[in-house]
Amino acid sequence: AQSVTQLGSHVSVSEGALVLLRCNYSSSVPPYLFWYVQYPNQGLQLLLKYTSAATLVKGINGFEAEFKKSETSFHLTKPSAHMSDAAEYFCAVSAKGGGADGLTFGKGTHLIIQP
Amino acid sequence: GAGVSQTPSNKVTEKGKYVELRCDPISGHTALYWYRQSLGQGPEFLIYFQGTGAADDSGLPNDRFFAVRPEGSVSTLKIQRTERGDSAVYLCASSSQGSKRSTQYFGPGTRLTVL
What we know:
- The complex is a heterodimer of chains A (115) and B (115).
- By secondary structure, chain A is mostly beta strands.
- Helices cover 0% and strands 52% of the residues of chain A.
- In chain A, the strands form three sheets. In chain A, strands 2, 5, 6, 10, 11 and 12 form a six-stranded mixed beta sheet that branches. A four-stranded antiparallel beta sheet of chain A has the order 3-9-8-7, with no helix packed on it.
- The termini of chain B are far apart.
- Classes of the chains: A mainly beta (115), B mainly beta (115).
- At the A-B interface, strand 5, strand 6, strand 10 and strand 11 of A face strand 5 and strand 10 of B.
């Protein structure tokens, strides 16, 4: 079985500051890892995913994440926050091989951008 | 192109009633997933279809929940004898393949309220 822990249900940063959203996973087999963003009244949208190629993954809207096996982490970063980044962010894992076919999500982190 | 659509967007029902929630996946996507998102939580996997068959229903909470996809496209999630605890946003996602590394594209969800 796999699980995801997102540290911080709410993160507040100033516009232009670094965004860091934390995600740690637990999986008994090599994982696939995903970050999704959810804007109010919209569906989840994929930001980026790790599928065992490069450990540093670049996504849309200037976001990137680094897979660190030794730390079982997949933290999401963006160098400079923009007001439009305010949203709910979800980290998710799926496991190669066995286990459920759906994604296992964390509880989400609400990103607040201060002007 | 058209994304995943879900109808209705909102459904209010009374305890004990039967409800059906519909999902129209992206055209040509063979894989379809249902998730449930309770307030303040991440989406929780319910069931996965590959074509017409339910390949993984391990996430269905009990036998009051059932889903079908008779022609390999549109899917309907059916909930019998609804309970107040069933209140949540029900999300549908589709992907071009059933691979665990494939991107899942999510619909906007159906908000179910059981009174």
